[in-house]
Amino acid sequence: MALILILETATKNCSLALSENGKVLESVDFNNGNFSHSEKLHVFIEEICEKSGRKLQELKAVAISKGPGSYTGLRIGVSSAKGLCYGLNIPLISMETLEILSRTYYSENEIAQNDLIIPMIDARRMEVYTAIFDTQFNKIKETEALILQEDSFNKVLAENTCHFIGDGAEKSKVFYKSENAIFAPTVYPSAKAISQCVYEAYLDKQFEDTAYFEPYYLKDFVDGKK
Predict the structure, then answer these.
(1) Above 70 in pLDDT, residue 222?
(2) Residues 70, 126: one domain?
């Protein structure tokens, strides 16, 4: 039996899931509008273990959202995941945050087969971390840090219904007035949406090198403090 702990800390949503063979046993999604991962993450880990009647020593792997996203959030999540993997001598699995966000939205909404999902994570000002996925979660456009322009998505909007999702999608409303544009800026990536994917990665032994694994920051850190 593959008991796997999944951590998602790349956005303001502090999200955890404990899954067994791809089925979610317990999960938490906490978002108070602030980055409270340093205070809440380990408390939630203890809570979901207690509620499920499982112990950390039973874990077969830990899965982490690797980014892009919040520098601080990613560091906290990855540090916690690596610490657990070292302490328990179990493998580390990672998934890209934009795919997790897309799978979360897909699991909660009706989406036509030919629609496209455009996840967006706010990267300050008019910039977002984004990519384009089809409904099979194949990448139509690779992950990038994009400064939004009026013509950024003209081609795909002309041919497909596009779902702009995530906290970065609020900015895109200003530019994309097409009838093919659907906006869902209140969606955040959730750990429970990837329980089956993580289980399949575990079976395929798609593990990271725990010692050298680093978050996918995508761009250099810039301190916003004056």
Answers:
(1) no
(2) no
